[in-house]
Amino acid sequence: MNGKRRRLLLAAVDPLLEPGEQVQVTTIVNLSSVTVRRTAAFAAASAMLSGGAMAVIPTPTPMYLAMTDRRIFIFRADPVFARPKEHLMTIPRAGLVRSEIKERILSSSFVVSSSDSEQGLRIVFPLLGRKERNEIAAALPLAG
Predict the structure, then answer these.
(1) Could you identify which of 77, 88, 97, 104 might form a hypothetical disulfide with 62, taking C-beta atoms 3.0 to 4.6 angstroms apart as the criterion?
(2) Going by C-beta distance under 8 Å and a sequence separation of 6 or more, which residues neighbour residue 128?
(3) pLDDT band (50, 70, 90) for residue 129
(4) d(CA 96, CA 112)
(5) pTM
């Protein structure tokens, strides 16, 4: 994440912080993945329907993630400007566990969930976000 994006994200997170809470990691992530098979099928279908004039490729909405020593904040990223668009959720870190890291060619991911819940949140990191992914993964215990 470049300096301007980080400054704007920190400015959005700052009013939400509790006294003594500090931001440890900031990064850009996706919360839902778009598979290669689905992308290819969608592009082929749109090309056929338009007579070959255009092909539409779905892309996931980028999100900003800021992890503090107590919580994880998720913001929707504005695709045109560097600023966070809206605050989507805040997840307390207490009791969170993660799955094994799944490596792919252009991304990697893991699922974050509460130790007492069956549901989880898949966080997909782009290729350039491996350092931040490793910092977040090191801070969350592996589900056992």
Answers:
(1) 77
(2) none
(3) confident
(4) 7
(5) 0.78
pLDDT at 32: 64
How far apart (Å, rounded) are the C-alpha atoms in residues 7 and 126?
Answer: 20
The span from the CA of 34 to the CA of 101, in Å, is 17
Binned at pLDDT 50, 70 and 90, residue 31 comes out as confident
CA 42 to chain CA centroid, Å, is 23
Pick from 26, 57, 35: nearest CA to 131: 26
Q: Of the candidates 2, 26, 22, 10, which has an alpha carbon nearest to the alpha carbon of residue 125? A: 26
Backbone dihedral angles phi then psi of residue 132, each to the nearest 5 degrees: -65, -40
- How many helical (H) and strand (E) elements, i.e. helices and strands, does the chain have? 3, 8
Whole-number Å distance between alpha carbons of 64 and 67: 10
